[in-house]
Write a structure and sequence with these properties.
The chain has helices spanning 3-13, 50-60, 83-88, 98-105, 118-139, 145-163; strands at residues 33-39, 61-74, 110-116, 167-175. With 187 residues, it is α+β, with helices and mostly antiparallel strands.
Length: 187
Amino acid sequence: MNLLNTAEKARRLCKDLPVTIKFEDYRNLNGRFDRIFSIGIFEHVGVKNYRTFMRIVHGLLVDDGLFLLHTIGNDRSSSRTDPWIERYIFPGSMLPSASQLVNSFEDTFLLEDWHNFGIDYDKTLMQWYRKFEIAWPCLSDRYNEKFHRMWSYYLLACAGSFRARKNQLWQLVLSPSGVANGYKSIR
């Protein structure tokens, strides 16, 4: 997936909406925003940068703004990722634990909502695996069998980790100082 193309597609889809789509390193952002969505980014920030990430997002939000953080999480704190995933799939990735996540926004944000979708995520991974296998005949001209085995293994192992409840998929809603009259979650 080409992220620049994805950002451009999002811009086209939102062209008539009061929405700004930015494709930029979070450390280089400036301005003030009513809402910030972080989807699939936090896993790549690195444990040493969690608090910096939260402070930057906090500084970008207006006083009554909301921050939605969507991230895969781990049931145990660690400062290292799986060596195989680090080497072959996502170099520099790190899955936060609940305590690492809370520590990253303590004294910066108020937690308004925390939803765990982890129980359902193995179904998503299994669909990705099925689609990967269906598409493989078209991809095999560009990628070798080692690539095929690695990604099949990765998708199936991740599905198993979610099914075993080792990994979670969290969506948090955070606010700089609390939503007046409380945040109403939509489920």
